[in-house]
């Protein structure tokens, strides 16, 4: 019997993608011996206000540029192909149906794990993917440990701590800096910054 492939999913609004996202995925790849990581921009993050002029095409293009030099990072347009609000549970249902020879590992930051019960069908999500979660700060906090234990006791869930160095970078701070005319150097790949300036993104 052939072994199932271990595929990481790095989902995000990526508005824009930055080194925090890339480092998280790279750490997950090595720490959990994954076979590859799918970078999957969310089409319609109903839980976020998208007030700037950036289109989903821009967000996807920036992801493709950012991951292009990493051979184990792959782009997935899975969520971009669906209309309406984007739900992770639908993504996992589609993927597990299309590729039953893969096990999925959903990579996330701690904030997402604290909110996961407000997502659509959390029990189904947790049954279809192993969760790899990174904390804020460089160690596993008591609050995150409690949340992992709580979810594992309540659901059929496997949640592992991702021991990733945390970069204090956020997409909202990058957008703020651009509006304020401040530097975004060293926060994201230079080629992504070039795309942002060439397309005049985030200035208003
Ligand atoms: P995002 O803001 O682009 O962030 C993507 C991921 O990167 C998050 O898990 C975030 O952690 C993490 N991250 C951000 N900055 C980081 C840094 N400096 N270092 C390390 N990690 C960092 O994307 P998002 O809008 O939160 O969406 C994440 C995924 O959750 C997407 O796939 C989305 O579809 C899914 N989602 C699904 C539902 C649903 O199904 N109902 C609802 C909400 C989200 P934090 O969470 O800690 O910020």
Name a few traits of the molecule.
204 residues; alpha/beta; globular; binds NADP nicotinamide-adenine-dinucleotide phosphate
Helix-strand topology string: EHEHEHEHHEHEHH
Q: How many beta-strand runs?
A: 6
Strand order of the largest sheet: 3-2-1-4-5-6
Task: Determine the mean pLDDT.
Answer: 94
**Low-pLDDT regions:** none
User: What helical percentage do the residues reach?
Assistant: 25-40%
**Global geometry:** globular
Total of DSSP H or I helical runs spanning 4+ residues? 8
Per-chain topology:
Layout: E1 5-12, H1 19-31, E2 36-41, H2 56-67, E3 73-75, H3 88-98, E4 102-109, H4 110-115, H5 122-128, E5 129-134, H6 142-154, E6 159-162, H7 171-180, H8 190-198
Task: Please describe what this structure looks like.
The longest helix has 13 residues, at 19-31. This protein has helices at residues 19-31, 56-67, 88-98, 110-115, 122-128, 142-154, 171-180, 190-198; strands at residues 5-12, 36-41, 73-75, 102-109, 129-134, 159-162. Helix 2 (56-67) runs antiparallel to helix 8. It is built from 8 helices and 6 strands, in the order βαβαβαβααβαβαα. Strand 1 (5-12), helix 1 (19-31) and strand 2 form a beta-alpha-beta unit. Bound molecules: NADP nicotinamide-adenine-dinucleotide phosphate. NADP nicotinamide-adenine-dinucleotide phosphate (NAP) binds at residues 11-14, 20-21, 24, 42, 45, 47-48, 86-88, 108-112, 119-120, 134, 166-167, 169-171. Residues 11-14, 20-21, 24, 42, 45, 47-48, 86-88, 108-112, 119-120, 134, 166-167, 169-171 line the site of NADP nicotinamide-adenine-dinucleotide phosphate.
